[in-house]
Amino acid sequence: MKIINSYGNFQLKNDGELEIFFIGTGTSFTEQTFNNNFIIVIGEHHILVDFEQNGPESLKKSVGINPSKIETLFISHSHSDHIGGVELLALTNRYLSIPEGGKKLELINLMNM
Fold first, then answer.
1. pLDDT tens digit string along 19-57?
2. Can you give the pTM of this predicted structure?
3. What's the confidence (pLDDT) of residue 42?
4. For residues 97 and 112, what is the distance between their CA atoms, to the nearest angstrom?
5. Are 70 and 102 in contact, with CB atoms under 8 Å apart?
6. Where are the domains of the chain?
7. Three-state SS across the chain?
8. Are residues 64 and 7 in contact, defined by beta-carbon separation less than 8 angstroms?
9. How far is Cα 36 from Cα 27, in angstroms, rounded to an integer?
10. How confident is the model over 60-79, as a mean pLDDT?
11. How far is it, in rounded angstroms, from Cα 19 to Cα 88?
12. What pLDDT is stored for residue 2 in this prediction?
């Protein structure tokens, strides 16, 4: 395992090594450390785990990534501090990412399985 400072250098693809980057580590009422969100990257794939109401801001401030670059989202559970920004992410994908040649957002939801 290696620890890296990723701001400004963070990529949603890598050489195949498993990387997990915590975007937020706060509670549901946090104002400074964002809610619990993280990105898993391995090779050509990435998964954003949860997307809270401050998701766009946390992505930009933590890793310097625009939400329109997210291709896969996993929802762990339906509390607002985990899904509050999902609607915005879906709209960003539909109206910004796809018209620019990006992929359709894939949503992984195990809550109903």
1. 888 887 777 676 666 777 889 999 999 999 998 888 888
2. 0.83
3. 93
4. 27
5. no
6. 11-79+99-113
7. CCCCCCCCCCCCCCCCCCEEEEEECCCCCCCCCCCCEEEEEECCEEEEECCCCCHHHHHHHHHCCCHHHCCEEEECCCCHHHHCCHHHHHHHHHHHHHHHCCCCCEEEECCCC
8. yes
9. 7
10. 88
11. 25
12. 58
Q: CB neighbours of 66 closer than 8 A, spacing ≥ 6? A: 59, 60
Radius of gyration for the alpha carbons in the chain, expressed in angstroms and rounded? 13
What end-to-end distance do the CA atoms of the chain give, in Å?
Answer: 33
Residue 78 near residue 50 (C-beta atoms within 8 A): no
CA–CA gap between residue 55 and residue 60 (Å, rounded): 9
Contact between residue 68 and residue 102 where contact means Cβ atoms under 8 Å apart: yes
| pLDDT for residue 72 | 95
